[in-house]
Every structure is written in structure tokens, then in C-alpha cells.
Amino acid sequence: MAFFRKLGDRVVGAPSILSADFAHLADEVERARRGGAELVHFDVMDNHFVPNLTVGPAVAASLVAATDLPVDAHLQVENPDSLIPAFIEAGVASISVQVEAATHLHRTLDMIREGGCEAGVALNPTTPPEMLGWALPYLDYVLVMSVNPGFGGQRFIPEMVEKVRRIREMCDLPVEVDGGITARTAPLMVEAGAQVLVAGSAVYRGDPAVEMRRIIEAGRAARG
Ligand SMILES: O=C(CO)[C@@H](O)[C@H](O)COP(=O)(O)O
Predict the structure, then answer these.
(1) DSSP letter string, the chain
(2) Cα 135 to ligand 1 centre (Å)
(3) Does this complex have an ipTM over 0.95?
(4) How many angstroms separate the alpha carbon of residue 14 from the centre of ligand 1?
(5) Residue nearest atom 6 of ligand 1, based on CA coordinates
(6) Of the chain's two ends, which shows fewer C-beta atoms within 10 Å, N or C?
(7) 140 in a labelled binding site
(8) Which listed CATH number (3.20.20.70, 3.40.50.150, 2.60.40.150, 3.40.190.10) goes with 12-221?
(9) Taking the domains of the chain in order of start, what are their residue ranges?
(10) What is the pLDDT of residues 48-58, one digit of tens each?
């Protein structure tokens, strides 16, 4: 389980389950996989850190069992440490926590890695990249939120392109981008250095195989 560490310089796509039909999650993921998706972005929301509520470790475990793709859990929750063991147990490949919600970030990242998962930190749109600072040696990837976390279908925040560029100047870690990613915004993010393109509404508003492929190809084209 080393999706991010083995990424090299590839650009890949990941469907965000938030916009999928939760009653048919495995099928929805499979449809995006047919469009070239290589990772599943699993949004966990607690109605405290964000004003929305989604699914937890039990659903993650079912999805892990139902797909060959690695599952990437994004914990948009107030107390990530209390949930991390259950997500490790569920078999997810990677776990990211919001830096704004992590009081003892070093311990949190350590717990994720000790559990055999890759560790990521997610930054809200106005959180400065410098917050990554001393956590960099303990990270496998950085997740840049290009909308305010909580909901799918929001407008892309254009300043996040510069933020991706800045993070790539600071470190060599793969940057995952999430929020308002479409075939129009993906090239901007890839040109700035992003490699993992998470898309929800843009994938599930049509045929997920077609839409996922369109986003991945648009992103890869930006590499020239
Ligand atoms: O985590 C989140 C939102 O908090 C995202 O994963 C959204 O689900 C992305 O949705 P789109 O902006 O692509 O519709």
C-alpha cells in the first residue's frame, strides 16, 4: 500500500464519493475506474468540522472489499485521532486529516503511518502552506482544498493554483487537489504541480467513465 509514494511524476484521477449514489457505491466507483480512475476519494464528514454528515469506517470497509482501487480517506472531522484506528482497520490505503483540526499533528501522522497507511494533510482554502512546516518529513502527500470542505458542486477558488505552486516549491510531495475540479480547472492545477485530481460533481453529473477520462486527459495534456 504505497499509492502516493509510488506515483512518480504521473497525473491520476480519483472520484469523490460525495457526489456518487451512496446506495450503489461500489458500482459508482467501478464506473469511474473504467474511465481511468486509480484511487477512490472517501469523504468523511462529522457535522462538526464541516456542516455535513457522510459515512464512516463501516462503509469504508465495505468499499475496500468491493473495489481493487486504493481508498483514500479524507477526514473532515473535529477529532481525527478517535477515528483513525477504525479507518486503518477498515483497510484504507491512505488517510488525510485537516491541519486545522489536528491539535497534535505529529502524533496523528505517526498513528496513520504506524497503521500501515500513507499520511496526508489537507489545507482549507485560506490556510497558508507554511502550516505544513515541521510536518513535512511525516507526510506522504498534501491535499489542497480548492473549495471550502463540506459539499460537492461548489465553485473552484482560483487562488488555489498559486497555492499548489507554492507547496511544490516547498517540497517534493505529491499534491492532491479537491474541489471544483473539472476538465477546465484540472490543467491549471496540473500546470502548477498537482498530480492527483479529485472530482465529484464533474464525474457523477454524467457518465462517470466518460467524465473521469475527460478530466484525466485534460490534466495530462497540461503536462505537454
Ligand atoms: O471533500 C470534498 C468537499 O468537502 C470534495 O471531495 C467534494 O466532494 C468535491 O466535489 P466537487 O467540487 O468535485 O463537486
Answers:
(1) --TTTT-TT--EEEEBGGGS-GGGHHHHHHHHHHTT---EEEEEEBSSSSS-B---HHHHHHHHHH-SS-EEEEEESS-HHHHHHHHHHHT-SEEEEEGGG-SSHHHHHHHHHHTT-EEEEEE-TTS-GGGGGGGGGG-SEEEEESS-TT-SSPPP-TTHHHHHHHHHHH--S-EEEESS--TTTHHHHHHHT--EEEESHHHHTS-HHHHHHHHHHHHHHTT-
(2) 25
(3) yes
(4) 11
(5) 16
(6) C
(7) no
(8) 3.20.20.70
(9) 12-221
(10) 999 999 999 99
